[in-house]
């Protein structure tokens, strides 16, 4: 599945990296330096897990400045993402697994609008 994510701040990039393990993900941003770093598999934000994923995982992730390119064939488009983290001690990969499971469960029920995603980790 092709997924477009607008914004490569902490939330957008975290979701892009995790979803890119099993999906084609295009990350859209307006900052050329961030796009260049992401395409070189260098995290533009200081985050140990994202850096580790860039170094160790085979990610199907591309960053772009071009909105048309990002959204052209995407089946899912994230324009805004809000994640509430309740359990700070929970391992990163378990958090992501739960986000992914919740997202796909809600997508199947058509509870998620194509223009937004709200995920809660509790």
Average residue-wise pLDDT: 79
Radius of gyration from the alpha-carbon trace, in angstroms: 14 Å
Share in helix: 40-55%
Order of helices and strands: EHEHHEHEEHE
- End-to-end C-alpha gap: 27 Å
Tell me what portion of residues adopts beta-strand conformation: 15-25%
Morphology: globular
Q: Order of strands side by side in the largest beta sheet?
A: 3-2-1-4
Structural class: alpha/beta
Major β-sheet profile:
4 strands, parallel
DSSP helical segment count: 5
Task: Pick out its properties.
single chain; 122 residues; alpha/beta; four-stranded parallel β-sheet; two-stranded parallel ribbon; 5 helices; 6 strands; disordered C terminus
Provide an overview of this structure.
- This protein has 122 residues and is α/β, with parallel strands linked by helices.
- Helices cover 40% and strands 22% of the residues.
- The chain has five helices and six strands; from the N terminus they run E-H-E-H-H-E-H-E-E-H-E.
- The strands form two sheets. Strands 3-2-1-4 form a four-stranded parallel sheet. A two-stranded parallel ribbon has the order 5-6.
- The two termini are 27 Å apart.
- Mean pLDDT is 79; it is low at 81-87 and 113-122.
Give the gist of this structure:
This protein is α/β, with parallel strands linked by helices.
Task: Give the helix/strand layout.
Layout: E1 2-6, H1 10-19, E2 24-28, H2 32-39, H3 48-56, E3 61-64, H4 67-71, E4 76-78, E5 81-85, H5 92-108, E6 117-121
